[in-house]
């Protein structure tokens, strides 16, 4: 199975996991020229931009560690484009979460990094 297919499968499973945690999925794989956000969801009245990271094992570090500063900045910029496209104010209640997938175990990191 190629990496893209494996990633898509884990993103779908992560969306189901988030639903079980009370999230409402708005969109999967939002894309713009700045990048991609795996899952856009609502938790209560908070708009959540969620990155899904999968690792088969810890050989290259934990999945959450893969969401480094460079990746965070790309996600922030992409989230800004989403807000602009959907005419939401920049001060809207948003959060950045990470779902780390390690060997079919899902760990949710709420507010994994800040918006600035």
Characterise this structure.
- The protein has 116 residues and is of the alpha+beta class.
- It has helices spanning 3-20, 69-85; strands at residues 24-32, 35-43, 46-55, 94-102, 105-113.
- The model has no long low-confidence stretch (mean pLDDT 90).
User: What count of helical segments does DSSP give?
Assistant: 2
What is the distance, rounded to the nearest whole angstrom, between the alpha carbons of the first and last residues? Answer: 37 Å
Poorly predicted residue ranges: none
Helix-residue proportion: 25-40%
Radius of gyration (CA) equals: 14 Å
Helix/strand order = HEEEHEE
Number of strands: 5
Question: What is the topology?
Answer:
Layout (H helix, E strand, L loop, with lengths): L2 H18 L3 E9 L2 E9 L2 E10 L13 H17 L8 E9 L2 E9 L3
Parallel strand pairs: 3-4
Antiparallel strand pairs: 1-2, 2-3, 4-5
List keywords for this structure.
5 strands, 2 helices, alpha+beta, single chain, five-stranded mixed sheet, 116 residues, globular
Summarize the structure.
The protein is α+β, with helices and mostly antiparallel strands. The protein contains two helices and five strands.
